[in-house]
Specification:
With 90 residues, the protein is an alpha+beta fold. It has helices at 3-12, 15-26, 31-35, 42-54, 77-84, and strands spanning 29-30, 58-63, 66-71. It is 53% helix and 16% strand.
């Protein structure tokens, strides 16, 4: 496995990070909105987002004083390519 694939899969292995990733799949959000309803603190959410960003799965953009996070589609390429090798023709 390549390093980028390993990092992406490792990042998504954590259930909190998967939840954040799934929420971002619905729409870009700031940390506060992502943290709402989760049993972790905002600083913990920020840490999880940092891990997802380092794995290339999310990107952030400044919006005034806050950062808005969204899924980075280019980061999904390694996972998609790896999974595609298991596709069975019908």
């Amino acid at each position: 496995m390549r390093a980028d694939l390993t990092g992406a899969l490792a990042a998504l292995a954590d259930p909190t990070r998967r939840t954040l990733f799934e929420r971002l799949a619905r729409s870009p959000r700031a940390v506060g909105a992502l943290a709402h309803g989760l049993p972790v603190t905002r600083p913990a959410v920020s840490h999880h987002l940092k891990v997802l960003k380092a794995a290339g799965l999310v990107a952030d953009q400044a919006d005034g004083a806050r950062r808005v996070y969204a899924i980075d589609p280019t980061g999904l390429r390694a996972i998609r390519a790896w999974l595609n090798q298991f596709e069975q023709p019908e």
